[in-house]
Amino acid sequence: MVLLCLMWTTWLILLNSVPNAAVNRIMDTGAFDDGSFWLFVDSPPRIYRLAIVGLSSVGLGYLLILVKLLTKRRCVTRILPTTKSDRKVNARTNSIAETVNNIATTLNRTASRSLGSAALLVSNDSLARKRINLCVKFVDLALETAMLVQILEDGSPLGHVAGFAFIVVANAIGCALIMFFPSRTKLFESLVDLMYVTREGTVGYRRFTDTSFYNRFDLLIAVGYPIFTVWYCFSTFTFDRTKFAINLEVFPPGWRLETSAGSIADPTQTIIIYKILGSLRISSVLNFFTRVGINITLALKFFRASDLINNPSRQQGEVYPKQNGVAAATLVVFAVLLIVYTEESIRTSATVCRPHSECVTYAHRWTALECPCLALIDNEIAPKTYAEWTNPKNVTDKVAVLAATGDLQIIQLTNRNFAVIPNEIRGCTKMRYIQFIDLNYSRIRTKASQFINHRSLVYTQTKTIPVWMKELRKLEFLRIEGHPVGGGLVSLPDDIFDDMSVLTTLHMASNAALTHFPSVLGLTNLKLFAVATSFSLVELPAFDNLSNLERLVVVITPLLTRLPDLSAIKKLKSFVTMDRGAWCCNGFLGKCDLHNPLCDVHPVWGTPAATCLPANRMDLTASIATRDIAAKFAQSICGDVLRPADVQPLPAEDTMISCNGVLYHQCTFPGALEAICYNARFMGIACTPSKYPIEMRRRQIAQGVGDPCNPEYEAWLGCK
After folding, report:
1. What is the CA radius of gyration of the chain?
2. What is the pLDDT of residues 442-459, one digit of tens each?
3. pTM of the model
4. Which keywords accompany this UniProt record (predicted)?
């Protein structure tokens, strides 16, 4: 048991130190998204130090107990014959002992009584010691109750809540029964006796004390329940790894939604697992006292149990006072109230959240009058009709309602009309995750948005992010992709990222009119920076403070002529670009080569040909560190320019009608030998000549992975 506790505490230290690596090890997700699949954020330095010091102290305590149990030495007494000299020594010893006894009788009586009282407190069978044990039990129950409240507030699955509450209630009721019926102690212990292996190798039962009974509850709370939650996460996590491997082999790096494990995984399942595993980390001072406190009390009880194992003569009859009616009744009342509180919390929140199917996780709160929603997910990843895609469901009012309580932490919307970001979100100070994909921000006010001969994009009038967005200082993930028809953002507040020091993921895409990107110097913990389909963006912000950046993605930004200095980036694992990058050939990296297709007139977007940067302007060319990074990732940057045949066309009314909402159906596209009905980038199901989804589906069918194939529509892909 002690070894199990030591191993668990060691893993908790890793979870608080390197959360992504620790969870990847357990969940086998280290290969997903360069090891950043779970997107755990490092704790603030103060909390981190508290967690490491507290857990290390607990681990050291378990280690000392283990050493104590394994290295017990037996005392061997040797009897020798008594000699004449021995008799002389004994006589002198007796004389000294008599003198000491005479001195002892003259000691102050008050001091003697004080020493006697202290002895009673440490005596196993004293009433004072039993009362202290009872007080410790109440402290344990208080810590466990605080943990239960945290579990309820975290919106844990009902089975987890019920299991934890049962352990706490059983702990209290068991203690009360022992005090009500002390003569039945052996009966209770016989049900939960500890089986052990003696040092001689025999197996048997041994009754240590009543403490062995209650250590089990503390063990369940501190170690058993958390290990169960980890097992639950591992056993319920489903991810089609073969399907994902096919995507990585078929699609080029720029297809972010198809090659990102985070985009493919079930969002509801991922969020629930994230919250469960995240709750095992120490994230606040209160969390520190409850988590570490319960482990410290368990370690102390194990230490006492080890004393009793090594010294059987010190074992006692009872731990708590006999027939203490007040204390026992208090424990029973506590257990009843805890049951009522837990049941009412679950029932009340379920009732008020039932009308909101989009709320996938909510806090269990018995005083809730409005749904205390924690995670709102409303995704439509494959619109079937043109009207459904261009005129999606308006969710502005729904988001406002669920954000009204201020509990909302996660928002994920795909293909939804989100005309205005409601002010209610401003009160969600614990907001950590925002993802908007293919959102029509201002459908009514849009002037126009269409491809003209696949060469130019007519920009639209859309709304910007509200200035108060910068107040969401706990935001960890921000992804905003505008709707290709409804348009994207035209601007961002200049200081929006100044105080977002915990933001780890920033992904901005399909914001065609965005010309200026605000400063990111405040994003000191940023690990992923992605910019895609930004036709008007002419410059990226300075990366001077992005020392923790691990992934950099720049896709379809034809007006960029140079990159910011990358000297500060020391942990870069992935650097991917797609389509035109004039900085690859205009002299930014050294040699200017205007014959490179990347510097020519763009065959799709019509971007003018690039010119060489002035040779005498060293401030416009790459630093040595930037050139070294470019050389390191030469295989994934400065690739081929997009050609008309490579471009994924936007869904049009005729291309969507020809598919009739059926994925992977064969269709006809002008100038293409074969075409497939596909929802590229979570857009509407439309006919596309792209070779990538065709090859992807053929491999899926051949290997029997992915959605079951339908021979009526997919025979041309090999379905039988």
Report:
1. 34
2. 433 333 333 322 222 222
3. 0.82
4. Membrane, Signal, Transmembrane, Transmembrane helix
